[in-house]
């Protein structure tokens, strides 16, 4: 990491004496200023709300403590206690992975695609494995209800191995639904009898509706449970506290079949964990949520990928029509996409980049020969579909695999592996 | 003889003096509009009334949203015209009564008494008709964005900009308007100084109320930064933009998707940049960078927003700001064209950003508005957003209305003249 220029530090000190401290984790002035502002707002808020001691000490003292905490590299999200995931404010604390913007972009885009779908089932079932803060099901529900007012209930289930995460996810669910109730009451108080405007809102472009949460989603069910996704259901070794996924599903009386499977599993290989992750991720975020557990006889790369075969198996068991997995980069995306294609169970596979809603800039054409790559940025997620989901997404019925000759794909694969 | 043996001389003198001159009003703030209405305006009002009749016939056959809207706009003019015609009629009748020699003196006296009241009524009706003919600002019923920036005067100007912001905030909270701070940037140095602030006033009709505030506000005082006690003159600029209500509020505005609207932006023309760190992304980093930058390519207007931690919210606000700025630019351009077209017809003193509109003088505790010419001396109340500020703002609104009426009369008169020549 390059040294911070003394000139920059001097300049920062002139603006605010606390700013040089924040430059250490932030590395640039603009984001340091932003973080200082957010921390100041937070300090003022907590100083007013909290017990007497800190109120006497004043918010400046609180702010100083917060900045010093941040200087150690502790993520701002843990200090402030929340992170924005799409439109939603999600509570997060140490021990649970902080939601990432890229995940929100993928989920939002998926719901945007589903919004045009004609024949969704009357109860759409969405299963999220390795849910963490519960951000994916909660955002899915929020976006889905924002888009569609007409029909369909949602059944959402988030699964995580960590009981802390499950507790937090339940708390987040409760907090968001309370907030939604409050907003609804407020709206009803301020604007009585303006129901005919609702129809107008749907037609408008998405960026003009900030909080389209209407009084819907009442029939939806959102649940979270603790289970181990990776454990083979047939083995009877109980290493962790959590029971295996399938057993727990039966035990909790959950329905056996699900329409959509989303997952943001641990996907960083041990070597990438040491090389590419930032300091604050490595030190402060749970390794359990980042790196898959080691198993004998697996290479570094295989360990990074070890969740995906299991997730694909589960997708087959629950007969998911649509699957969205987050991945680390384009190489892993291609590996996962090949796994899905080689299983011969899917009608189509697609790779999404960081911003899948944007037009893709087609610079690497050889990749597009093998799989469709959508959007801009790094390779971020893999989408597989089959059966009725083909129509939900508006894809042509016969896709990709008939168009692309397997021989060429194989050759290309070899080339990629060599390079 | 007298009840009191001695009265002090000043008291006696004061008793002898006529009523104090202070209470006598020499200037009037009543409008300088003549009682009678210019024939050009009258003919125009009649034309509108004719169109109103046609429209209502058309509406009787079938509903048309656009026609209904237009009808609503016209009805004020039509009502005013009816009032005016009634007053005109009765005035004429009374006059003939008075002049008629065959009528007995008792009735004539009654009539002449009535004339006074009717003349007054007639003047009122004329005034109402003229003001109803003045075209309303199309954005009058919108919430607005108030942008405050320091002008000439260094850190003192920045401090004054902060003062202005607090003044408007206090005013809004006194009037009960909801506000939200869209953007707030500290200047270097003093805590209360301001680099740029955008305040959204979420009250329908806020634009009509605040649009007179736009312009350069001048301050004369001994700044906090001054060590030798000299008075400085600095300035801060205030920009008022109509704000598009998000979530389709109750105010009727032109449709966003309507390409003719000022607010229309083709999404293809806008480049969105998320200023996100390059690198692995995903689980590898936990960045808090939520900045959004929008560039409108045809006009090269750039809006960047990073105040909120939520990226969608930043994007939302950036779009709102971009839309407002673009609409303002388009409107300014159109108005500029109009001014060029009419310059030889009307001597309009163009109210640009260059001219100062108001002076706040701390030494004399005085606030003077240079457009309406009103001077008030309760500076503290003005800076506290109190009733005096409302008084000043109202005077400017009246001034603007009068100016509009003058312009209208001149233009209409000119047009009828031109017609006559042809």
TrEMBL record, chain A:
Keywords: Methyltransferase, Transferase. One of its GO terms (cellular component) is mitochondrion. GO terms for molecular function: methyltransferase activity; nucleic acid binding. PROSITE patterns: N6_MTASE. The keyword Transferase applies. Coiled coil: none annotated. GO terms for biological process: methylation. It comes from the Eukaryota. PANTHER family: HEMK METHYLTRANSFERASE (PTHR18895), MTRF1L RELEASE FACTOR GLUTAMINE METHYLTRANSFERASE (PTHR18895:SF74). This is S-adenosyl-L-methionine-dependent methyltransferase. It comes from Lepidopterella palustris CBS 459.81.
From TrEMBL, chain B:
Residues 276-292 form the Prokaryotic-type class I peptide chain release factors domain. The keyword Protein biosynthesis applies. GO terms for biological process: mitochondrial translation. Gene3D superfamilies: 3.30.160.20, 3.30.70.1660, 6.10.140.1950. Keywords: Methylation, Protein biosynthesis. The keyword Protein biosynthesis applies. One of its GO terms (molecular function) is translation release factor activity. One of its GO terms (cellular component) is mitochondrion. Belongs to the prokaryotic/mitochondrial release factor family. This is Release factor. It comes from Lepidopterella palustris CBS 459.81.
